[in-house]
């Protein structure tokens, strides 16, 4: 477990770049830190792995302050993936690279060799390949593999998908997801809200060195106050769902709640069937006998849907104090007419 208790931090001892930051990351969590440039996300990661010490408050790893842990103990507990794999890779071959962490910890031996072999097989690496000649995505995978070969219980990923194309991003994140499913705690800094939405269970949003929201991913990414304060754009499907909810008063709840392509497609498929627009109380009872009258279907243009859902909506065309103009009679030939 990682705990930040009222943590402040500074690089020069004077200017606070983190102010009174508190949160807890439990074992097995998958947390994404989001926020604009300079919000303090990377600084928070440096505090997690002990590269930076708090100027006030405490950072505890399994109850022990980072200041009381040796660098090797921290390295065993927390694997750190830098944004740029070239800051991490330093050996002449893939195999050497994967053995590097064991050597640094003084843990070379048959067990280390066996774990390196297993990782080489799992990732399909060529052990004698020169790391710097690999493409960007494979170098990122190698940097990630060189961390997970040490099997730390926590991995910290600073912008793990920056500079990767879609396929490379999917490959790296699939490995991260599998690790998390096997129990590894994942803490990730990420600017890509599509990746955050697809993978993280929880989001901590920061701005100007403070935590402004901490909760389930889509609760945070749907909160208009948080979006405004952190200048974050939600994932595209969520943005569409929020826009439909805002613009279309009769927007069915499952459409407004959709956060994935599948959820949106399913919700729209249901909404476009005959009775989807009617409020629950007026929807036909599936157990009803056939001779019971059913409510009429809304028109394709949504007008029927509006009428069904908002029977008491004031007539926008009525001037105050004047009677509303007479209603236009229903066109019996119109689609969806009652
Ligand atoms: N090594 C450093 N020395 C001095 N100030 C720094 C250093 N690193 C970051 N800062 C400052 O600390 C503040 C927080 O920066 P940090 O890198 O933690 O933000 P961030 O949210 O990770 O931003 P980004 O998304 O751009 O990486 C910024 O004002 C930044 O200029």
From TrEMBL:
Predominantly, its location class is membrane
Give the UniProt subcellular location, in the record's own words: Cell membrane
Annotated region (Disordered), positions in chain: 275-338
Q: Which residues form the ABC transporter domain?
A: 2-233
Ranges of Low complexity compositional bias?
318-338
Iron is among the record's keywords: no
Recite the UniProt keywords alphabetically. Answer: ATP-binding, Cell membrane, Membrane, Nucleotide-binding, Translocase, Transport
According to its UniProt record, what is one Pfam family this protein matches? ABC_tran
Q: Which SMART domains match?
A: AAA (SM00382)
Record GO cellular component, one term: ATP-binding cassette (ABC) transporter complex
What InterPro entries does this protein's entry cite?
AAA+_ATPase, ABC_transporter-like_ATP-bd, ABC_transpr_CbiO/EcfA_su, ECF_ABC_transporter_ATP-bd, P-loop_NTPase
A molecular function (GO) held by this record is: ATP hydrolysis activity
Q: Which family does it belong to?
A: Belongs to the ABC transporter superfamily.
Record's protein name: ABC transporter ATP-binding protein
* Species in which this protein is naturally found: Adlercreutzia muris
């Amino acid at each position: 477990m990682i705990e930040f208790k009222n943590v402040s931090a500074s690089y020069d001892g004077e200017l606070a770049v983190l102010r009174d930051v508190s949160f807890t990351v439990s074992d097995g969590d998958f947390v994404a830190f989001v926020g604009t440039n300079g919000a303090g996300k990377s600084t928070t990661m440096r505090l997690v792995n002990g590269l930076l010490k708090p100027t006030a408050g405490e950072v505890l790893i399994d109850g022990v302050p980072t200041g009381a842990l040796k660098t090797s103990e921290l390295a065993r507990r927390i694997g750190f993936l830098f944004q740029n794999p070239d800051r991490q890779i330093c050996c002449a071959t893939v195999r050497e690279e994967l053995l590097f962490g064991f050597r640094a910890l003084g843990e070379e031996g048959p067990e280390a060799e066996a774990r390196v072999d297993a990782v080489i097989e799992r990732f399909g690496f060529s052990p004698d390949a020169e790391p710097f000649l690999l493409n960007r995505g494979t170098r990122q995978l190698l940097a990630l593999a060189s961390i997970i070969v040490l099997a730390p219980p926590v991995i910290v990923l600073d912008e793990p998908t920056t500079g990767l194309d879609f396929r490379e991003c999917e490959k790296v994140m699939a490995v991260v997801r599998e690790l998390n499913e096997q129990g590894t705690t994942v803490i990730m800094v990420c600017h890509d809200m599509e990746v955050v939405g697809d993978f993280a269970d929880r989001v901590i949003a920061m701005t100007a060195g403070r935590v402004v929201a901490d909760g389930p991913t889509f609760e945070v990414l749907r909160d208009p106050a948080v979006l405004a304060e952190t200048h974050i754009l939600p994932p595209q499907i969520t943005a569409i769902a929020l826009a439909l909810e805002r613009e279309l008063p009769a927007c069915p709840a499952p459409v407004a709640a959709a956060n994935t392509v599948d959820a949106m497609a399913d919700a729209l498929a249901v909404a476009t069937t005959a009775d989807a627009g009617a409020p629950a109380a007026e929807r036909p009872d599936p157990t009803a006998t056939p001779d019971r009258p059913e409510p009429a279907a809304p028109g394709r243009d949504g007008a029927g849907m509006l009428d069904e859902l908002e029977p008491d909506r004031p007539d926008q065309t009525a001037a105050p104090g004047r009677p509303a103009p007479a209603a236009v009679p229903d066109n019996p030939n119109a689609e969806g007419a009652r």
